[in-house]
């Protein structure tokens, strides 16, 4: 039987949608489903991506007001249908013990508002950090005859990095992927594991185009299975919009594995490019750019220089290539997830 608290929670979300508070509804759902099943989170991510894309098109003036309203109605209908599916995947014991009261009403003059969400809801379940540690296993250091880079597993037998890190089959056959090159809480080095890259599986796109390479890996009876490092989920359907945040797990300067969780706002996007303020260094090329569901939405590849956000402000930004642009080119080497 559906938990009463869950029923009240979903009823509140439906009310917010009917009142035109779709953004508040999506923020509430994203916070609640942070520890839910992959299926639910993927579906919600798709709903959020569609909503954000509509808002972006409105701001850019590429869609009329009438078309925007019609599309908003379709999105709201799809979101209401999604709400009907949630109880099938949520166990009663995992339901909220109390409904979070979220309101868009402003306090009357003289009233004190003691707490509120500022813009996008950035609250996360504590398990979000645990999930980040889990996906970090799939990120590796790339060692080539001419330098270092970063890369990440996208399947049981393949990884992705930049073309300017692995530009050719010849370089691939002379290069290695090293996993677990990091320190523990006591600053001790963990045991790392190297795998030779293999051009038996290889596809690439030049730096001036998509700047990515998919390449295979070799294993041996003495090595750990590649499955020990898992693989990352790619999402080509969730291009972020300005003010959203991304995270990058990387090997800057070919050194120990590091992560950026602060000052990492998306500035803008253009064609296949995503621009963000996340810190990177030489050797970070080929790192995965994650959304807040730990899905890879871009691959970091360059210093983007000074960019302008939609409000006209100028920022120094780093640059990644969107998965939505890479997927069509990758063809049959794109992982089946």
What's the structural blueprint in terms of helices and strands?
Elements (H helix, E strand, L loop, with lengths): L3 H15 L3 H11 L5 H23 L4 H21 L41 H10 L2 E6 L2 E9 L2 E4 L7 H4 L3 E4 L13 E13 L6 E6 L29 E4 L7 E3 L5 E5 L2 E4 L11 E3 L5 E13 L5 E9 H8 L7
Antiparallel strand pairs: 1-2, 1-4, 2-3, 3-6, 4-5, 5-6, 7-8, 7-11, 9-10, 10-13, 11-12, 12-13
Helix pairs in contact: 1-2, 2-3, 3-4
Report on this structure.
This protein is an alpha+beta fold and 337 residues long. The protein has two domains: 4-102, no CATH class; 126-337, Thrombin, subunit H (Beta Barrel), CATH 2.40.10.120. 27% of the residues lie in helices and 25% in strands. It is built from seven helices and 13 strands. It has helices spanning 4-18, 22-32, 38-60, 65-85, 127-136, 169-172, 323-330; strands at residues 139-144, 147-155, 158-161, 176-179, 193-205, 212-217, 247-250, 258-260, 266-270, 273-276, 288-290, 296-308, 314-322. The strands form two sheets. It has a seven-stranded antiparallel β-sheet with strand order 8-7-11-12-13-10-9. Strands 1-2-3-6-5-4 form a six-stranded antiparallel beta barrel. Strand 7 (247-250) and strand 8 form a beta hairpin. Helix 1 runs antiparallel to helix 2, helix 2 runs antiparallel to helix 3 (38-60) and helix 3 packs antiparallel against helix 4 (65-85). The two termini are 32 Å apart. Residues 94-119 have low confidence and may be disordered.
